[in-house]
Amino acid sequence: MKTPTVLILPGWQNSGPTHWQSLWQQQAGYVRVEQHDWLRPLRGDWITRLEDVVLSVDAPVVLVAHSLGCQLVAAWAGISHHTQRVKGALLVAAADVACAELREVLPSWSPLVLKQLPFQSTLVVSQDDPYCSLARSHEFAQAWGAAVVNIGAAGHINADAGLGDWPQGQALLQHIISISDEPKDTPW
């Protein structure tokens, strides 16, 4: 069994140098899915880019998504024919792009994709996320079939939350990697 490749999926405007996603990438060599336009993200473009990267990897994949990256995972999984390559996903602080504030600046992300993900996933939520209410986070988790981990009052679970390299998140990722079954009928 090949070691999975961990793909980092930042949200709108990318993850800065002190964001836990960037720190994980530096420390563990995870692969960031670079988007063509971080400031004006178009859902179709982001889906295509994720598909290209997933297809370029010769190993099982684990997705680590933050904010808009969580919506990317759902949208991609809703149309891709290659979801069997994904071993699991750690989804963190899903942004509610249907709320009025975000819908105006991210119009191509509506309607939301609220379908069961075809792979094991965990959604990490915060009680005071300014971009998604706790109730809405639970709606996303239920629709996606994701387990929920509530880490309390941690804002948008980003660099502003002061998490550093976020050891709790690393433990969740390692758990996802360890409990996920090897995908069936794959070339690796």
General description of the model:
This protein is α/β, with parallel strands linked by helices and 188 residues long. It has a single domain (5-179), classed as Alpha/Beta hydrolase fold, catalytic domain (Rossmann fold, 3-Layer(aba) Sandwich). 35% of the residues lie in helices and 16% in strands. The protein is built from six helices and six strands. The protein has a six-stranded parallel sheet, with helices on both faces. α1 (20-28) links the parallel β1 (5-9) and β2 (31-32). α2 packs across α3 (68-79). The longest helix has 14 residues, at 43-56.
In short:
With 188 residues, the chain is an alpha/beta fold. The chain has helices spanning 20-28, 43-56, 68-79, 100-105, 134-144, 167-179, and strands at residues 5-9, 31-32, 61-66, 86-92, 120-125, 147-150.
Proportion of strand residues: 15-25%
**Sequence of strands across the biggest β-sheet:** 2-1-3-4-5-6
| Second rung of CATH, namely the architecture | 3-Layer(aba) Sandwich
Low-confidence segments, given as residue ranges, are 182-188
Terminal CA distance: 7 Å
